[in-house]
């Protein structure tokens, strides 16, 4: 499962004027009485993070966007594994160990299926019974070769195969909704997302953070905020399941952020940051469980970003 926190530069809106008007009308009609969401929808369409923040800040002043930036103060502290367990994280000691469930199931299926077919093909008459089993058996070797030379291609196949697990789509929704919600709660706007297999991600767009990351000048305060968002998906899975599946990309993203921080963190500091970020984001998710569940439902139904925000704010 891919979990991506992407910081990208704002782009001009490509939406047609008529479409934007229809979106604005829908936004204003679905808001609470006296609250106009057209400015927010326009900012989202333009993917302008500053305008989105400004629109949400104004809606908060009007009493509508109550959960927006409701947890702006994020401060790291020393955290133990026991605290994670006490909070409800299952198997906290194994959170950072990449899951091989999907990979193992895929490879076992390929090897098992090709082996079975090769045995059946061995019953073919004449030379067919000699050559066909070798051809079928070579499929496993080809899969292993692709995994060694082009792991991205193999990962795409594993991602598609993972859909056979009954909990896979629910895991994706829970995971990505956690990134979205935690980012919203600490005041970082999400301007896009996807739950499509192999493309699961949320788009966190912030011009100031983008400049700091690309320049390698992230300070400790901003790193803490990004760490909490990065670990939110992992925390959501840890609260619900015995085994976390989608942590690899999240941990890679967090490591990238830590590598671009000044001053650099020691290994012990990096480990503590990871634990604390999981603890902090898990606390936010537990305290906003209704909003998380509502957002999961909205994202599963492919709601717009504005629709997702409304789901968060309208949750009881």
Low-pLDDT parts are: 1-29
Share of helical residues = 55-70%
N- and C-termini, Cα separation: 30 Å
| Sheet with the most strands: spatial strand order | 1-3-2
Secondary-structure-derived class: mainly alpha
Please indicate the percent range of residues in DSSP E strands (runs of 2 or more): under 5%
Q: Return the string of H and E elements.
A: EHHHHHHHHEEHHHHHH
Count of helical stretches? 14
Gross geometry: globular
Say how many strands there are.
Answer: 3
Major sheet size, sense and barrel closure: 3 strands, mixed
> What is the CA-based Rg, rounded?
23 Å
Q: Give the overall average pLDDT.
A: 80
Question: How would you explain this protein's 3D organization?
Answer:
Residues 1-29 have low confidence and may be disordered. It contains 14 helices and three strands. 63% of the residues lie in helices and 3% in strands. With 316 residues, it is mostly helical. A three-stranded mixed sheet has the order 1-3-2, covered by helices on one side. Helix 10 runs antiparallel to helix 11.
Short characterization:
With 316 residues, the protein is mainly α.
Spell out the key features of this protein.
316 residues; mainly alpha; globular
Question: Topology of this protein?
Answer:
Blueprint: E1 5-6, H1 17-30, H2 38-46, H3 49-61, H4 81-87, H5 101-121, H6 128-149, H7 151-161, H8 168-185, E2 190-194, E3 201-204, H9 207-215, H10 220-240, H11 248-259, H12 267-287, H13 289-300, H14 305-314
Parallel strand pairs: 1-3
Antiparallel strand pairs: 2-3
Helix pairs in contact: 1-2, 2-3, 4-12, 5-6, 6-7, 8-10, 8-13, 10-11, 10-12, 12-13, 13-14
């Amino acid at each position: 499962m891919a979990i991506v926190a992407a910081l990208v530069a704002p782009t001009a809106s490509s939406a047609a004027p008529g479409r934007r008007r229809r979106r604005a009308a829908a936004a204003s009609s679905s808001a609470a009485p006296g609250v106009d969401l057209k400015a927010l929808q326009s900012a989202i369409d333009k993917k302008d993070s500053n305008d989105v923040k400004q629109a949400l800040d104004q809606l908060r002043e009007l009493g509508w966007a109550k959960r927006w930036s409701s947890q702006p103060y994020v401060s790291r502290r020393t955290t133990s594994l026991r605290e994670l367990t006490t909070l409800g994280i299952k198997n906290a000691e194994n959170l950072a160990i990449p899951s091989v469930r999907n990979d193992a199931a895929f490879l076992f299926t390929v090897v098992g299926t090709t082996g079975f077919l090769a045995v059946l093909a061995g019953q073919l008459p004449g030379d067919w019974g000699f050559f066909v089993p070798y051809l079928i058996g070579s499929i496993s070797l080809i899969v292993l070769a692709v995994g060694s030379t082009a792991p991205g291609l193999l990962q795409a196949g594993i991602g598609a195969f993972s859909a056979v697990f009954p909990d896979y789509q629910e895991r994706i929704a829970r995971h990505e909704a956690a990134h979205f919600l935690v980012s919203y709660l600490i005041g970082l706007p999400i301007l896009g997302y996807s739950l499509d297999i192999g493309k699961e991600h949320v788009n966190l767009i912030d011009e100031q953070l983008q400049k700091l990351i690309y320049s390698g000048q992230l300070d400790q305060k901003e790193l803490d905020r990004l760490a909490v968002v990065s670990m939110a998906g992992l925390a959501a899975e840890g609260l619900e399941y015995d085994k976390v599946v989608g942590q690899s990309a999240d941990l890679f993203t967090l490591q990238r952020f830590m590598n671009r921080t000044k001053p650099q963190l020691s290994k012990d500091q990096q480990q503590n940051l990871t634990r604390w970020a999981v603890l902090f984001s898990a606390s936010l998710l537990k305290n906003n469980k209704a909003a998380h569940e509502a957002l999961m439902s909205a994202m599963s139904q492919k709601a717009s970003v504005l629709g997702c925000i409304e789901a968060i704010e309208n949750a009881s």
